[in-house]
Amino acid sequence: MKLFPQVSLWLFFVIALLGCKPDYNEALSNTLVVRITADLKGLNPVLYRAGSSTRLMNLLIPTIVDFDPKTLAFAPVLIDSLPKEVVLPGENSDKVAYRFRFRKEAKWPDGSSITAKDYIFSLKVAFNRKIRGNSWTRVLSIIDKVITNPDDPKECTVVLKKKLANSLGYFAGFELLPEYHYDPNHLLAAFPLDDFVSIERFDKLWTAHPEITQFAQQFSQEKYIREPDGVVGAGPYRLAKWEVNDQIVLVKRKNYWADQLSPPSTLLVGYPDTIVYKIVADEVATKLKIKNKELDLVSNLSASDFIKFKKDPIIRENYNFFTPISQEFYVVILNTKSPKLDNNVRIALAKSIDVNQILEATVSGLGKRIISPLSPNSPYYHHGLEPIKKDIQAAKELLAQAGWRDNDHDGILEKEIHGKVVPLELTMVAGGTSPIGMSSAPIIKAEAAKVGIKVNILGTTNSEILSKLRSPKFEMALVRFITSPTDYMPYGSWHSDNAGLKGKNYSRYSSTEMDAIIDSLQMSQKQEEKKKAYLRFQENLYENQPVIFLFSPDKTIIVQKRWEPLITPIRPNFFENSFRLKKN
Amino acid sequence: MAPYILKRLLYFLPTLLVISMITFGLSSLVPGDPVTLLMGEEVSPDDTSPDDYALWLKDYRAMASAYNLDKPKFYCSIIPSVYPDTLYKIFPMSNRKRAKSFVHSFGSWASVNSYLQEVERMERKWRKKSPRPPNYTKINSLMNQLNTTTDKEDIQRILQLLTQENSDLAIDDLKSKFAQMATGSRLGLLWPKWVWHGTQNQYHQWLIHLLHGDLGISNVDKRKVSAKIMSALPKTLLLNFFALLVALSFGFLLGVYLSTHENTLMFRFLLSKIYAVLAIPSFWLATLLVVFFTTSDYGAWTNLFPSGGFGYLPKGASIFQKIQIRASHIVLPVLSIAIPIIGVIALQLRRSLVAEMKKTYIKTAILKGISRRRVIWKHGVRNAIFPILTMFSNVLPGLIGGSVAIELIFNISGMGRLLLFSIFSKDWAVVFGILMFSAILTIIGMLLLDILYMRLDPRIRLTKEEFA
After folding, report:
1. pLDDT band at residue B423, thresholds of 50, 70 and 90?
2. Contacts of A447 (CB under 8 A, 6+ apart)
3. How large is the ipTM?
4. Which of A96, A380, A484, B16 has the smallest number of CB atoms closer than 10 Å to its CB?
5. CB contact under 8 A, B46 and A11
6. What domain range includes position B396?
7. Is the CB of residue A138 less than 8 Å away from at least one CB of chain B?
């Protein structure tokens, strides 16, 4: 009995002695160590399409075109130039078609060339509805057919069912998959793409041919989601290791085809030899790792930590600090169909909120006021519209004009609606996992109370927020959304077609003028016309305030000084493959 | 002994069944639509058109069917008599909720269903209308309101406005269906009815999978819950194995020392320190250790250990290097878990050892000339450890479940962190999988304890055998 404690104590003593050594520090070589706060869901672009993991996924499996981090416009990645609209002869002459050609240097890791066959294969995967959770089917439903050129295997002509202003982002904005790797048994090769595009034909196809279901099951295996040998694309890196909830390691491919490109493509370079994504959720652990220089790149720090770190002499000595504009917006959505929320009340609410105070209280001033859902980086952003200033007096007047009075002197305004006296009491849905959103809500409540509007905060979870927004009882909600860096497509969020149960126009805003602007934006190609329409679109929102646009918090990023980083407004605001080691 | 174990196992089965029902019941109560969670984040936010909805609904039904979410929850249900027996077949779940609220407002399912179908038919017809009339936006807006409201007066008002707009829509049909619905009686809501669903229900399917060792699929990354648990468990087990080793070793030595040196200066000193350590929460102790011993902030000599994680093993590292990297990462978390337990063991052992040392068989042994040290370790400690064994049967599931705070602070991807991340990401399948796993472990722990008691104490064995 006595022997046990003695032996085990000695054992632990030896372990402690072994452990009393500095950690092996990978942040010494050309290895970039990036902190992420949570593990990725998967590295299969068809099954997992989460914004935060897209960039990492594209280092392994790039898209055909992507946003250039410098110009903020679409740039060719796997093709030699951006697709051109073409007029097809014969029966297809009235259809919208685009032609593009894969780069002559573009190769898969096995050395074979990237061809139109891979594009067709990727579309067959996209339209294979037997793959559970296939996130591509609806996105690519605008594609009607693909025409290949027998004389040029790298050329593709895509025929679309309808023309959308942002078509390019759909038919070429997805990750290209190598057929040889994801379908080694050629299960899909025998079937034409047309059988996949049409829902009716696809239903007949899969019932008659078990290969379709077999492929779907094979494609959804762990191998093609998380395993180093399974996740394969034409990107500059290969997946070397994935330790679930711990770290993901990417290693630069040897003899990578895009290394020969001149000039090099920012989206395809791979300057660090290794990129290690470490999952560190705890703020204390992150701070200590920063102090020990164990992390090269840390983003998504809270504003208060960012400022604290900036003041810390040890951290300041070793790290550079960046605050690029983010694509995140905080807004208050108002149900325009609620009898309590007419134009005057919405504008009065906007005038009652001190957005600058919220900015200071929630993100220590690290953010920018916004007036519309367009990114301030967009060429169509309306810089002529001043953010609405807090004006309690004007807000009170607007409410009085709308017939709201505090007859019972309880501090809350009342009005007779449909024969009943109704107090101006609104329920604001807020929450999710956003600490910024949660801390903004009480400020809005306090500010609204000053003009006689009682706001009750209803905290909720991310999974519930959509059903709350679509509920008939919905009145207002404080939410965060992500905007596009360049072309913003307003149809989904602002057209009256989408103001029902099924759409994403949560404010139920409908106006004849707005519908006309959006319809024209869907079709217009000329820059001047587009700009004019976008400006009027923003003016319409500004005048009617179906949504109160609050602010866009800055992204907080710190990078070790040994790196020359590429920081950009495009999500996730850094392009880790473009980070270069400083020469000295 | 075998019949006794068998008997105990038979007792555990109904307990496990009840736990499984509670776990499943809880997993069904969580907010949000499980099908949309499985389908993942919605894409193409800016260009969606209502036509896409049909496609989405098709995918939704396929996903619900694949994960048995298109089946009733349990073997039977008790619902208001006006509800349809197949309410669970209405998809998506938001539509089910809407149908329910209509039944609550108007009473008769038949007339509600007929009205809702008419609204749907009218909407489809309206969407296909070409060319668009000048009042398109206005009618669109009214149609949307009609879709969202369940209020009788609101519907009446909207129908009146739609009539005024001369939209060529068959408003009269809808009006008559509404009138039929509005005159329905709500009395049926007061009468319950019993519906038997048979074995084609979600709980039954879940239980069958559970018996095959399948705890389900994660809502977030669609990995098997059992695979997620198995990847996190080894790290937690390793940490807790060493933590237990350290805690038992120090605890035993300290406990024996305290019981044999009562009322000395050292005794008082050690006792005060143990109480002080017990008063510090383990997450705070872990934070102190990590802050003081992983950076050079408090002097170069304090930068002794890495700040967290399980270590990065470079390619081609030798076994010694690998052990060294892993060892350096576990020292502080092991101490953070072990230190509070040391205090508990020491105090418990001291108490029971003092009581044991007063017993006559100990006095007899000493009088027979056996050395005091031998009497303490051979006889006293052996009989004094029973309370500690009982304590460990309670601690075991907690230890395997992992320490959320310690794993988070030291950035170790064990069971605790898995549980926390799963709660944050609303991955209830994993949360309830861990809950079920812990329940099974608790029962196994209790069984092992019973067996251990029988092995160590002949008196218990005799009683059990008589009982058996």
Report:
1. confident
2. A352, A353, A354, A357, A390
3. 0.74
4. B16
5. no
6. 225-467
7. yes
